[in-house]
Amino acid sequence: MFSASLRAVRPVALRATRSAQLSAVRGLSTTSALRSDHHPPAIFGPGAKPGEIATDEQQATGLERFQLLAEIQGVDAFDKAPLDSSRVGTLEDPIKVFSLDTERLVGCTGSPADSHDIHWFQLRQDKNRRCPECGSVYALDYQGHPHEDVHHH
Question: 0.90 cut: is pTM over it?
Fold first, then answer.
């Protein structure tokens, strides 16, 4: 009896679910992006062929894929080189910190390097920052697009 009533209700429930899914998809549709010639970066690998085991290059996604493709091309994707610690930055001549974003996390270990414990602070494009221990001044050398502000909505 119970299964017979479920069979009777099932087509109505499926139609309701299908229309809800279509309205949700339609509400998020971006047809202009689909029609443009601009293609988003390939952050998804092609995957492995059936019956094969995928390599890192085939299965990597997101930042891991970005870093892997950069290494293949011989480029350092993330600048991990230490900042200039041969001098103390001053207000007139601060130590420039390269960035493609309007802010960057910076760690100071003093001048010469490792002369004090590391002090972390957020460096922003609009304001220089001074290390509280050694007094070295840092300035953001913003190299990104001038009108692109991806993190601040």
Answer: no
